[in-house]
Amino acid sequence: MDKESFFNDVYEVAKLIPEGRVTSYGAIAAYLGVKRSARVVGWAMNGAVSQHEVPAHRVVNRVGLLTGKNHFQSPNRMKELLEAEGVKVEKDQVVNFKKHFWDPMVELGL
DNA sequence: CCCTTGACGCGTT
DNA sequence: GAACGCGCCAAGG
């Protein structure tokens, strides 16, 4: 993998997130081997918004809070997209986050 | 080249 | 158990 693949890898993992499921920045970072760089994952997702192939709305922080909703086209866009996939969102927070949580480490089998 | 900011996470208080 | 602070990494000014 090239060094530039970091952002690309983040996109790849995000693309693998099934509908109705959500994951955290830290989980993706950990899967990529840079678990302490969760912030960088968030930065990568910033560019992912342009990549409409990447469901950035399925990526939230470790508590299930839609911290990045402010970076979308519309702050309400993220919530709508999630609810459209069956993910309940209340007060900018994913309901039953643990239940909808999709861990790449487990799901992808590391 | 140095300083500040930011879609995070974890340890301590 | 909630609130606060520190640490990590990259980008922008």
Radius of gyration: 13 Å
CATH architecture: Orthogonal Bundle
Q: Could you give the count of β-strands?
A: 4
CATH first level: which class? Mainly Alpha
Number of structural domains: 1
| CATH topology label | Arc Repressor Mutant, subunit A
Query: What is the approximate shape?
Result: globular
Order of secondary-structure elements: HEHHEHEEHH
Q: pLDDT below 50 for ≥5 consecutive residues: which ranges? A: none
Largest sheet: number of strands, sense, barrel closure: 2 strands, parallel
* Helix content range: 40-55%
- Count of helical stretches: 6
Structural class: mainly alpha
Largest beta sheet: what is the strand line-up? 1-2
Mean pLDDT across all residues, rounded? 92
Beta-strand percent range: 5-15%
What gap, in angstroms, lies between the N and C termini? Answer: 17 Å
CATH superfamily: Winged helix-like DNA-binding domain superfamily/Winged helix DNA-binding domain
Name the features.
110 residues, mainly alpha, Arc Repressor Mutant, subunit A, two-stranded parallel ribbon, two-stranded antiparallel sheet, 6 helices, globular, DNA-binding
Structure, described:
It is a single chain. This protein has 110 residues and is mostly helical. It has one domain: Winged helix-like DNA-binding domain superfamily/Winged helix DNA-binding domain (Arc Repressor Mutant, subunit A, Orthogonal Bundle), CATH 1.10.10. It is 44% helix and 7% strand. It contains 6 helices and 4 strands; from the N terminus they run αβααβαββαα. The longest helix is centred in the first third of the chain and has 11 residues, at 5-15. It starts with a helix and ends with a helix. The model has no long low-confidence stretch (mean pLDDT 92). It binds a DNA duplex (13 and 13 nucleotides) through helix 2, helix 3 and strand 2.
